[in-house]
Hints:
The complex is a heterodimer of chains A (695) and B (596).
Chain A: E1 8-11, E2 15-18, E3 37-40, E4 47-51, E5 65-69, E6 75-80, E7 86-91, E8 97-101, E9 105-109, E10 115-120, H1 123-128, E11 130-138, E12 141-148, E13 153-156, E14 165-166, E15 179-185, E16 188-195, E17 198-202, E18 207-210, E19 222-227, E20 233-238, E21 242-247, E22 253-258, E23 267-271, E24 280-284, E25 289-293, H2 306-315, H3 319-329, H4 337-348, H5 356-367, H6 375-384, H7 388-395, H8 401-410, H9 414-424, H10 427-440, H11 443-451, H12 454-467, H13 469-478, H14 482-495, H15 500-516, H16 520-543, H17 552-561, H18 565-574, H19 579-593, H20 596-605, H21 613-621, H22 625-632, H23 637-646, H24 650-660, H25 663-672, H26 679-694
Helix pairs in contact in A: 3-4, 4-5, 4-6, 5-7, 6-7, 8-9, 9-10, 12-13, 14-15, 15-16, 17-18, 17-19, 19-20, 19-21, 21-22, 21-23, 23-24, 24-25, 24-26, 25-26
Chain B: H1 13-29, E1 34-38, H2 40-47, H3 52-57, E2 60-65, E3 78-83, H4 87-101, E4 108-113, H5 119-127, E5 134-139, E6 145-148, E7 151-153, H6 159-164, H7 170-186, E8 191-195, H8 197-212, E9 226-231, H9 246-254, E10 256-257, E11 260-263, E12 285-288, H10 294-299, H11 307-323, H12 331-365, H13 368-381, H14 391-398, H15 403-415, H16 422-436, H17 441-449, H18 463-469, H19 495-504, H20 512-517, E13 522-526, E14 543-550, H21 555-566, E15 572-578, H22 584-591
Parallel strand pairs in B: 1-2, 1-3, 3-4, 4-5, 7-15, 8-9, 9-14, 14-15
Antiparallel strand pairs in B: 6-7, 8-13, 10-11, 11-12
Amino acid sequence: MDCYTANWNPLGDSAFYRKYELYSMDWDLKEELRDCLVAAAPYGGPIALLRNPWRKEKATSIRPVLEIYSASGLPLASLLWKSGPVVSLGWSAEEELLCVQEDGVVLVYGLHGDFRRHFSMGNEVLQNRVLDARIFHTEFGSGLAILTGAHRFTLSANVGDLKLRRMPEVPGLQSAPSCWTTLCQDRVAHILLAVGPDLYLLDHAACSAVTLPGLAPGVSSFLQMAVSFTYRHLALFTDTGYIWMGTSSLKEKLCEFNCNIRAPPKQMVWCSRPRSKERAVVVAWERRLMVVGDAPESIQYKQLTIQVLLDRLVLRRLYPLAIQICEYLRLPEVQGVSRILAHWACYKVQQKDVSDEDVARAINQKLGDTPGVSYSDIAARAYGCGRTELAIKLLEYEPRSGEQVPLLLKMKRSKLALSKAIESGDTDLVFTVLLHLKNELNRGDFFMTLRNQPMALSLYRQFCKHQELETLKDLYNQDDNHQELGSFHIRASYAAEERIEGRVAALQTAADAFYKAKNEFAAKATEDQMRLLRLQRRLEDELGGHFVDLSLHDTVTTLILGGHSKRAEQLARDFRIPDKRLWWLKLTALADLEDWEELEKFSKSKKSPIGYLPFVEICMKQHNKYEAKKYASRVGPEQKVKALLLVGDVAQAADVAIEHRNEAELSLVLSHCTGATDGATADKIQRARAQAQKK
Amino acid sequence: MAAHLSYGRVNLNVLREAVRRELREFLDKCAGSKAIVWDEYLTGPFGLIAQYSLLKEHEVEKMFTLKGSRLPAADVKNIIFFVRPRLELMDIIAENVLSEDRRGPTRDFHILFVPRRSLLCEQRLKDLGVLGSFIHREEYSLDLIPFDGDLLSMESEGAFKECYLESDQTSLYHAAKGLMTLQALYGTIPQIFGKGECARQVANMMIRMKREFTGSQNSIFPVFDNLLLLDRNVDLLTPLATQLTYEGLIDEIYGIQNSYVKLPPEKFAPKKQGDGGKDLPTEAKKLQLNSAEELYAEIRDKNFNAVGSVLSKRAKVISAAFEERHNAKTVGEIKQFVSQLPHMQAARGSLANHTSIAELIKDVTTSEDFFDKLTVEQEFMSGVDTDKVNSYIEDCIAQKHPLIKVLRLVCLQSVCNSGLKQKVLDYYKREILQTYGYEHILTLYNLEKAGLLKPQTGGRNNYPTIRKTLRLWMDDVNEQNPTDISYVYSGYAPLSVRLAQLLSRPGWRSIEEVLRILPGPHFEERQPLPTGLQKKRQPGENRVTLIFFLGGVTFAEIAALRFLSQLEDGGTEYVIATTKLMNGSSWIESLMEKPF
């Protein structure tokens, strides 16, 4: 009895082992364990067990039961499984239990069996079903890899921030690989799989065939593979009973062993103690266990940080202990006490026997404005427990609208969400709520809601202007905003309609709206536009060429340029173009035509309302000094000097300036005197100036 | 590289470095080679933050412009879209991604929203079935971009239109966010002043955001003493007038975009003898304009009439410096001379450039039409004949001068008359519609909505009161050695800057009456500081005011503020921020609507 070696048994020649019960599990299972899906969390975390998982027939008599035990065997939770068939169980690094269903839906539970959330691994997985699934842990969190019935892999490197990657196809893969595992190299997750004698490495971009250095010959298939917890080592078991152990970079073989057992093992795992240099692989068959080892290497790891320790305490609801540790370690509030308090609050909201008011008050009393506490997270938890009213009360303490709004929407308190979004000034948030409301309410109610929120209404109008023109019209109609309706139809007359009749009709609607808006000017202008448009159409038919959408001014110009001056006159009269502008227009058009004869006739038709300097200017612009001179003499005294200078008659300009005794004109002429030719003129001016000064 | 940003009273390089760091961090998240697909509008502003070399250091190998259908081929691991959060851009991105999926090896897609992530856009991507294709969807809070040592801009071209025409305060929200970023880097600004509806909203948002950030106590010693938020619609007049500073005129005539200007190349042709001018460059000359260039820093804010003398003085100094070589006798002296050569050559190049620019501008400013236009503007601003149809404007319309020019003048007249008589207004409108086309009825309506063009209500013209109280028109302006901000418009003192000046001394209480006439509320808010951070000003030490123009600012206004900063007894130095650097033409253009 007292002999220490009494319960040790020999193992081989030089080793002994003993077997003793660490903890007794509180489950009454014996042989049935083999029929259960089992998953143990890393670092001595809880153990999950799904009884009767395989139930192909639809019989409801024996439902699967999900049970969770602590590592020391205490039952933590037990619940009837009511969802679909489960293919695989696993724990995330945050001690959340992931239950992977055949249809690719993953249900997530806390360690007390509380349902957290679910997500799907995508359509491809849904269609082809899950054949196999692996949960793996990286420095970023816990990932999930799925092998589908179509023998394709889909992977998410972090289930906390789900981004699905569909891995490339393995060429020529007809059946499921004989074994596979996930590897993590250079911060990227890969999949290593075996097909017959071949090994393939998949990353998200490519599938590459790989070989094992120093692999013994004769292998026709791999039966098992195992990767170590740190992803540094890899072991493979072949159909020849041979075990290859090496680095998972596939660059180095560490050792090999031939065990002469050709039966496929049930399980193969790496094992080692922290800080131990011994690395070993344990291979298990139905009734046999084998330890293959020796790969010296120094390994240290400190994965279980203080944060993780605190998380574990919180998960086990040991809040006071966690807070004491934080205070002892003097952790900053945000990382320490306030985080624990937030967790406590999340637990608190689940106490259904306490009233909403009391819970909200208790939480606010304890948390106050503690930095780093997210009231919206706590509210989300309350809502998750079906306590919407409590959630709304808690949200009132949340200062960040960006956090309030999404939850309010989720709780279908869209109108409250809208006013919170508007308060924040964040237009994107307002838009988000609006689109929600639009789907949620019927049109009438939606418009009514908008009406009471002018800021939201104007934003929604902008949205409609670019996305839903018809709705924009309805909005203006509802508000009897005839001015905007008018503008709306003006725009429509350009955008939607090709035919003149259609455009005119749209303009008529616009004009009517402008009348209703008591904007007489716009209404009349629009009617003028309709008249012009019809006329332009007729001109195109009768004269050919392009008239539609020219301005009135340009239409008249085009007619003159085309030699249709009668029609031009008529049009100018019809639309009452002011005389001054008509003179400019004709002057410009005739000069463009270089029809000097007609221009002269025009200039004499009556006294020019714009004077004659423009005639001089435009002739000079066309480099016709001869014609320009004709008009220079008719320019009024005020602009005479300018006109004479334009046609290059410096001497006469000087005479006029001297006559005017105008200093500005004198210096203007002087600045035009160039070289020897104007020397005499310059002297004349200087003399006149001197004389003027004497007086 | 951006040393000129640190020359001012507030080191804006700190901000630039902060946004550069954020960019690098994002690029490093997408490990491996990358191609960036650009929302074209962003490339200009980004150029002020990061050159291609920075992107290259982070494995950016290709750059494309965002457009429909397929992406150009690129052998890279990551494709990153740099976009503004706009729905129409999301549609293009989806098209790109969907056509990419059908080809070859898959790549990683990412989106960087500038300046903010948008749920609305993400929803659109989701509806189009591509949201899941993006590994990283992040935002890059590039709200305020440092343009110069005292100048920040959001370069948001639609800001004025959105705020005043569409009641869309998105850009105000971004402005508030930008101000929060500034405060995170430069400390809490203890006092906020403001005038205008938008100013009020931005202040409210800031106060709210501060509450949201409780817990992260700002422990930076405040650099700014005040913040002044000003609505553009408090002063609609100033941008309409033609700017008469050197920089202002360059912008009026050629348009400065993200601190670059494109100029006609002829004046910049290398002068070679016997060349016969056959190889004239055809591509526009592109120059960067900022205070990193010593000469430009000296002349940019001067009235253009005072630029010529500086240039000729500078020419003499430089040629004298080159003449020094004849005096260099000993090896030491020659070495000394040679060591200064690069600097002298740069100075000579800079002088040559600005002499050419000044010549180009002079061609315009000495033209008769420019003179006539200026005369009309000055008449309006000094209150002459603002209530009847102006014959110069009439002639401009009759000769079909550019519509923007006509609109600027009509709006200026309207603003200087507190609105036009209905008959005058209708006459102008009718002339414009008949001459330029009826489609402009939409533009005219926009201008009316913005208050730029309006009928006079109540038959009362408030402008003379405002002009006299704020001394907006100064008859005795000194363009060469100015004593008042009115030099930037040769007589007109920009209203906005006058408000800032009066706030600093003697305070707005002295102009309560005018403040009530101008649109929107005026207000003051205090942001309490912990005792350790309260400033004890040394005697004679100037206050630093951050002045934020909501809806845009002109170079002439900036020049006027710099003038105030430099006044010896001014008491206040200004750092200027805005939603957009603009001028009257770009402003009016942003309000125009072209239905076809």
